[in-house]
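Quick one, tokens below:
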């Protein structure tokens, strides 16, 4: 793994909320630290209510992590475009991110309980 990227098990329990809905809660989150960016919490898909998430056509590429697929959050009250992302086929050095999803802080609230 490049020296500027670190992945570790995030201690404690995390919840993600958006549009008045709880999208998931987990005690199996991963925390990714990358350079000077704030750490990002990744949730296992199986701990998320995937019915709230729809894949969009948006993709981006990171030279270290691979291609990111984006998701919109759909709740009763709102649709939040490209609010989450996932590396569905991550590069080998960050393979632990497979089957995990992260959320943009300005679009969903991720909190440690």
């Amino acid at each position: 793994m490049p020296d500027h990227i670190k992945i570790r098990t995030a201690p404690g329990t995390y919840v993600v909320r958006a549009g008045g809905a709880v999208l998931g809660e987990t005690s199996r989150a991963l925390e990714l630290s990358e350079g000077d960016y704030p750490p990002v919490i990744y949730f296992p898909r199986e701990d998320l209510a995937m019915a709230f998430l729809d894949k969009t056509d948006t993709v981006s590429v990171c030279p270290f992590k691979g291609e990111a697929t984006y998701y919109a959050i759909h709740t009763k009250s709102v649709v939040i475009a490209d609010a989450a992302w996932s590396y569905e086929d991550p590069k080998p050095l960050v393979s632990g991110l497979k089957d995990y999803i992260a959320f943009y802080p300005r679009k969903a609230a991720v909190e440690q309980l």
